[in-house]
Amino acid sequence: MIIVTATITAKPGKREEIISKSQNLIKYTRLEPGCISYNLYASTEDEDALVMIEQWENKEVLDTHMQTDHFKAFGAAVGDILAEELGIDLYSVEKV
Fold first, then answer.
1. How much is the pLDDT for 20?
2. What b/e readout covers 72-94, taking b as 16+ CB neighbours within 10 angstroms?
3. Under a CB-based contact definition with an 8 Å cutoff, are residues 6 and 40 in contact?
């Protein structure tokens, strides 16, 4: 299994706009084959910080996800309201 954490930092006052623009991404991603979970969380300490935590069956389905129209549309929609580039970390895990 692959776990992804994508740290999203909004420009001041733009967090709710990013949350709104993420709704289609979340909805359609959860329907993708190989998606185990896909959730957006807001920081309780930083009003401009969000994190997307994703679980995928394997790297191949994650790679396919990153080529979807809804993934690309989200990136284009929020590009100008991000305070910094997304911080993306991937982890390979196995259940024990």
1. 97
2. eebeebbeeebeeeeeeeeeeee
3. no
> Residues with Cβ < 8 Å from 60, sequence gap 6 or more?
34
- Domain-by-domain residue ranges, the chain? 2-92
* Exposure string for 34-57, b = 16+ CB within 10 A, e = fewer: bbeebebeeeeeeebbbebebbbe
Nearest to 55 by CA among 67, 66, 39: 39
CB of 20 closer than 8 Å to CB of 76: no
pTM: 0.92
Residue 5 in tokens: 């954490």
Instruction: Determine the CATH number of domain 2-92.
Output: 3.30.70.100
pLDDT of residue 88: 95
Q: Is the pLDDT of residue 26 over 90?
A: yes
Pairing outcome for strands 35-42 and 2-9: unpaired
